[in-house]
């Protein structure tokens, strides 16, 4: 078989990346007609009328030009019916009056993958651009309201306009293509247009008074022209900030009291003490150990654990885990080369059903999990009705003497964790 030594990439377009970036035109998928990218709707209308092609959810396509070029190439290779659903109109009319339209949408896995790849590519480009602007120290621009000049970083100008002129377009780190954004806003002011209500006034002073008195020193959030300047509009596939915000608001309204009734827990997936088998409940796990080891292991472990308080249960499980991990019989301390050999020994000698004296495993070092993701520990529970001799007495807690740290390091029980 041949090896792949370098990452593979899908072709960008029939004409290559350079052709895509340099051309301001978008061709029809089927013919030689071309339209300016800004006239996207005209191209879509042309393809519907002349070629009976409907593209679903065009607004979700991150790069319209690349999308069209991709499908122009694919339709040249295979029939359109290999990709599109056929919609028949006037189905009850005579055959000659019926028309077939072709629907291209992301139900087709290839189309869905293309849309997601274009979205991811655009997101990478936008984030790279935003990072360049974030750390750029060569920024230079004038304030739109007081003609004060600013150099260095864009945040200096944006913070000045927010603080001194109550004109806040958002945090600098949330904005991308800042130069273009400021140019669009400046052009509107030069055309004597209010940035918020977008009315046009007769002179500059009237516009200033209007924006100040009406508190219109802000942009119109409903104007889609501004969406491309905010990073949030690129983060979720096919969603603008308004859609993301409305979904969040709906969640708050639907759950005013934080109803958790529909919350679903993940399976427990506890692991057997003696092999790699997993189960989603402790009952299934005990049953597995009983059947797998041909012993009454279930009863043994269940009875042993039920006779202990929670912390003793934790120490016992961690003790067994530690011994099995080291391929050492926890009864006679004999070591083996493999876990399989160990289990065979414990089955034959019945050592699996007998634990050593409690003083052997009821040690502080076994408070610490042998495996950090040991879900079995989370399923343990204390018996509220159980009162043992150990529990009936107050257990004193004596701190270790830390006056001599060197001696402490040598004598501390934590050293046993290294064994």
TrEMBL record:
A single GO molecular function term of this UniProt record: zinc ion binding
InterPro entries: ZN622/Rei1/Reh1_Znf-C2H2, ZNF277, Znf_C2H2_sf, Znf_C2H2_type
Gene3D superfamilies named in the record: Classic Zinc Finger
Domain C2H2-type: 192-221
Keywords: Metal-binding, Zinc, Zinc-finger
Family that this chain belongs to: Belongs to the ZNF277 family.
Listed name of the protein: Zinc finger protein 277
